[in-house]
Design brief:
Blueprint lengths: L2 E5 L4 H12 L4 E5 L7 H8 L4 H4 L5 H5 L8 H10 L8 E4 L2 E4 L3 H4 L4
Parallel strand pairs: 1-2
Antiparallel strand pairs: 1-3, 3-4
Helix pairs in contact: 2-5
Length: 112
């Protein structure tokens, strides 16, 4: 398994995700989105597996202040998410073509 954890900072859900993989001795790579944001192609790859409404953190203050909150066009929202990773629900965990947004151990358990 080639696990990648994408996140901005180590919030509670990110720490739980890291602990989940460490406890099971599953190696993972941590990608800091503040240093290396998603490219449009990476975003499209994640969007194929994760619905846009799950990928965007619509409850955050940053989302409410963003132009993405006022549009319904998925391609525009995707572009805004690429430019501003603070709007993403983290952690985003990828394993090849599989992906999740948020803390989802019930899904990760099936990735064997």
């Amino acid at each position: 398994m080639n696990i990648q954890i994408y996140a901005l900072k180590r919030n509670f859900d990110v720490q739980k995700a890291e602990r989940y993989f460490k406890e099971r001795r599953i190696p993972y790579q941590f990608v800091d989105l503040s240093r290396r944001p998603f490219s449009p192609r990476e975003m499209e790859s994640v969007r194929q597996r994760v619905p846009l409404d799950e990928l965007a953190d619509t409850q955050s203050d940053a989302w409410k202040e963003s132009p993405a909150a006022y549009t319904r066009d998925d391609s525009v929202i995707s572009e805004i998410l690429c430019q501003n990773p603070r709007l993403l629900r983290t952690p985003i965990v990828r394993c090849g073509k599989l992906a999740t947004a948020g803390y989802r151990p019930e899904v990760w358990e099936t990735w064997k």
